[in-house]
Specification:
The protein is an alpha+beta fold. About 30% of the residues lie in helices and about 25% in strands. It has 4 helices and 4 strands. It has helices spanning about 25-35, 85-95, 110-120, 130-145; strands at about 10-15, 40-50, 55-60, 100-105. The model has no long low-confidence stretch (mean pLDDT about 85).
Length: about 140
């Protein structure tokens, strides 16, 4: 059965909003990625870390306070893959008094490619992500030499 499923690589992001400042500025770009079929949102969870260090999940619908439900398009985006342990880990990396969005998404653009490789007998045996800050530092270092 798994041979019939074309699934692209699945990634996650934890995006911190220091001091709970959420403007929603990135939402139109996220919606565009979904609309164009580049990614598929599997889970989208928001958490807040209190000053005492406790982490709680919360619902958010209107980022910019204009009365519009900015996240209505993602209503029901819950695969159940993100659990309490994932929320706790996200809480470990954000500052007290801040909030974060945890986004789990499939890279749909890669699904047909990976499917073709699998049908040809190949297997993806490793993948990874280079953090942007690390990549920028390496590029700057290379330019300096």
């Amino acid at each position: 059965m798994t041979d019939e499923i074309e699934l692209g690589p699945v990634d996650y992001l934890v995006v911190e909003f220091p001091g709970n400042k959420m403007t929603g500025e990135g939402l139109p770009m996220l919606v565009d990625l979904v609309d164009r079929g580049i990614i598929r949102i599997l889970d989208l969870v928001f958490v807040h870390k209190d000053v005492d260090g406790s982490v709680r999940v919360f619902e958010i619908a209107d980022f910019d306070g204009d009365g519009q439900l900015d996240l209505a398009v993602f209503d029901g985006a819950s695969s159940g893959l993100l659990g309490d342990e994932d929320v706790a880990r996200a809480g470990e990396v954000i500052e007290a008094g801040s909030s974060a969005g945890i986004l789990l998404f499939e890279n749909r653009w890669a699904a047909p490619f990976v499917g073709a490789l699998r049908r040809g007998g190949a297997e993806v045996v490793a993948s990874g992500r280079i953090p942007a800050a690390e990549l920028i530092g390496a590029l700057e270092s290379a330019e300096a030499h």
